[in-house]
Write a structure and sequence with these properties.
The complex is a heterodimer of chains A (314) and B (253).
Chain A lengths: L10 E9 L5 E10 L4 E5 L6 H9 L6 E6 L2 E2 L4 H6 L1 E4 L11 H11 L6 H10 L15 H13 L5 E5 L7 H16 L3 E6 L2 H7 L2 E6 L2 E7 H8 L1 E8 L15 E3 L5 E7 L7 H10 L4 E8 L2 H12 L1
Parallel strand pairs in A: 3-8, 3-9, 6-7, 7-8
Antiparallel strand pairs in A: 1-2, 1-4, 4-5, 9-10, 11-13, 11-14, 12-13
Chain B lengths: L2 H17 L1 H23 L11 H32 L2 H6 L4 H30 L7 H25 L3 H18 L11 H7 L3 H14 L6 H25 L6
Helix pairs in contact in B: 1-5, 2-3, 2-5, 3-5, 3-6, 3-7, 3-9, 5-6, 6-9, 6-10, 9-10
Classes of the chains: A alpha/beta (314), B mainly alpha (253).
Bound molecules: adenosine-5'-diphosphate (ADP) and magnesium ion.
Chain lengths: 314, 253
């Protein structure tokens, strides 16, 4: 049976570096490929270079070296083809003031060379709960509503690759939920999404793959599940029958911590280690006559993984 | 060519104009009328005919040029400065449009507005003096060329400016004085020979002279030189804009 070649990536970033005018190097030799249809979360602390990377791909910032292609089209040479596939929702709330919602969204569609399509614009506005506000001037809208307008503008020209730069920063819970819903719908429609976020649970919930960027370096790109598995530390919490006054001697080989009230012990272990050490810990506890009331385990969250990763680097 | 995008920018800019349509029209009509009252009636009654034209009629081309230069420049400058200032320029930069298309949209709209204003001033002027245009086609050609050239100039200033002061300083400190000294209200032939020579380095002299020739068939410098110089200025602004987009100067970091 003939094997179909692997689908070319919708986005390919090869060896991209960026040094700003003042001499500050914001990106260091970034390599990244994004498959069509996936949701990719770019995580990193403030100033890591997330916005810079997105801005380069979208044509807002010049790259210093390297190569970027979108669906096979070079962003420099074939900028028309490359950019027409991209929708960008910027981090900052940069909107017009005096235009109506309808006009500004229609303007974006025109700017991307797409024929007028009121039905599509209507659908986008309805999906984002902006339909009632379509004739309002943008400056009369709340921050959350403006954020929706920016998303509507990006979706007006039916992008195949959508960038959401911190879409839920400073956004209330209801709107955040709604945005996740929008992302889910877009994914079902086959849109590739790259988002940056500070909310790690958001990445955990939405993304298929996660990249961690720190000080201009992409220090890790991994399937979310794989990442959780690989770096997943688990914690085993042991509830004790009788409280302990201090950590009993002879447990130094274990990463154990006694709670302040002495009623529970917490054991941290690596799920990938050849031996988790749980069996021998249990044996030792029994030998010492420490009896257990209950026990529970907890998988570390991405946030913890992330903090560990970045701290390791520093 | 992404004509849809050009049209989108053009319409966006024109909509901006129409939101303030009353002040866009009323203020030039009022200021033109004032110029006629002051220069035409009060001073003009004491001035002989210039080149066989009554003084009131003589200043009409200069008055139109004065407004045309200011309006083309400030409109185009604001048009591109504002999205830079608010940050909405991100959308223009990330859209699949070429520099030429961006310029066509912004400069086209700014020029359209100032041409319309020029024609409004022309109509207002005709209420005060007997107007007779000898070469209407040339008149329109100069009107369009000048509007486009100064809109390009304004576009460059809008990109260069990093504050509102800079945006205002060029029209105020450069263009208006050049227009006044460029023969808006007098023929440079009235100046002493030395100042006539000095005037010839003022680009606005050529614009006004050519424009006035289209009205009355007489001019300070020959029509060919006027046209040639106008085209040179246009080419210079085109070269500057090409450079700006090639390097991303003041647009991209
Ligand atoms: N136009 C610029 N000129 C100089 N330095 C910049 C510019 N834009 C961003 N930087 C710097 O580059 C680094 C990365 O910024 P950015 O990409 O915005 O990070 P992030 O989006 O991850 O918070 C920061 O240190 C920032 O100060
Ligand atoms: Mg950012």
């Amino acid at each position: 049976m003939p094997v179909s070649p692997p689908a070319p990536p919708i986005l390919s970033v090869a060896n991209v570096s960026k040094t700003y005018e003042g001499g500050f190097q914001a990106l260091k030799a970034i390599d990244l490929e994004i498959a069509r249809g996936e949701i990719f979360a770019l995580l990193g602390p403030n100033g890591a270079g997330k916005t810079t990377l997105i801005s380069i791909i979208c044509g807002i910032v010049n790259l210093s070296s390297g190569k970027v292609t979108v669906d096979g089209h070079d962003i420099g040479r074939d900028f028309r083809l490359a950019r027409s596939k991209i929708g960008l929702v910027p981090q900052e709330l940069t909107t017009d003031a005096f235009e109506s919602v309808w006009d500004t969204v229609s303007f974006s569609r025109g700017l991307f060379g797409k024929k007028k399509d009121p039905a599509h614009v209507e659908k986008v506005l309805r999906d984002l709960s902006l339909w009632e506000k379509r004739d309002n001037k943008i400056m009369t809208l709340s921050g959350g509503m403006k954020r929706r307008v920016l998303i509507a503008k990006a979706l007006s020209h039916e992008p195949e690759l959508l960038f959401l730069d911190e879409p839920t920063a400073g956004v209330d819970v209801a709107l955040r939920r709604e945005m996740w819903e929008v992302v889910r719908k877009l994914r079902e429609a086959g849109v590739t999404i790259i988002l940056t976020t500070h909310y790690i649970e958001e990445a955990e919930m939405m993304a298929d793959r996660i990249g961690v960027i720190s000080r201009g370096e992409l220090i890790l790109v991994e399937e979310k599940a794989e990442l959780m598995r690989k770096l997943g530390h688990k914690e085993l919490t042991l509830q004790l029958m009788e409280p302990l006054e201090r950590m009993p001697a002879g447990f130094t080989e274990f990463d154990l911590a006694l709670s302040p009230d002495g009623r529970s012990l917490t054991y941290s272990y690596d799920t990938n280690a050849e031996r988790t050490g749980i069996a021998s810990l249990m044996r030792r506890l029994a030998e010492e006559g420490i009896r257990l009331r209950d026990l529970s385990t907890k998988q570390s969250t991405l946030e913890e993984i992330f903090v560990n990763l970045v701290e390791e680097r520093v | 060519m992404n004509y849809t995008a050009v049209a989108a920018i053009y319409r966006f800019e024109m909509a901006r104009t129409f939101r303030t349509i009353m002040q866009s029209i009323i203020s030039p009509v009022i200021s033109t009328s004032l110029y006629f009252v002051v220069f035409g009636a009060a001073i003009g009654s004491r001035i002989q005919e210039v080149d066989g034209v009554s003084y009131g009629a003589f200043i009409v081309p200069g008055l139109i040029m004065l407004s045309l230069l200011q309006q083309s420049l400030t409109n185009a400058a604001f048009g591109i400065y504002f999205p830079k200032f608010t940050g909405t320029i991100y959308e223009i930069l990330s859209a699949p449009i070429s520099p030429i298309e961006i310029v066509l949209g912004y400069v086209g709209a700014a020029a359209t507005k100032s041409i319309a204003l020029g024609l409004i001033i022309l109509v207002t002027a005709s209420l005060f003096v007997d107007l007779h245009i000898e070469h209407p086609v040339w008149m329109l050609l100069f009107l369009v060329l000048t509007a486009v050239t100064f809109a390009m100039f304004g576009f460059i200033i809008g990109i260069w400016a990093d504050g509102f002061e800079k945006l205002q300083i060029v029209p105020l400190l450069i263009v208006t004085p050049l227009a006044f000294l460029g023969g808006s209200f007098y023929s440079i032939k009235m100046l002493p020979p030395f100042w006539q020579e000095v005037s010839l380095v003022n680009p606005v002299v050529y614009l006004i002279s050519g424009f006035r020739w289209a009205f009355y068939g007489s001019s300070d410098v020959s029509i060919a030189v006027s046209l040639g110089m106008t085209l040179v200025f246009l080419a210079a602004t085109l070269a500057a804009v090409t450079y700006i987009f090639r390097t991303g100067w003041r647009l991209k970091s």
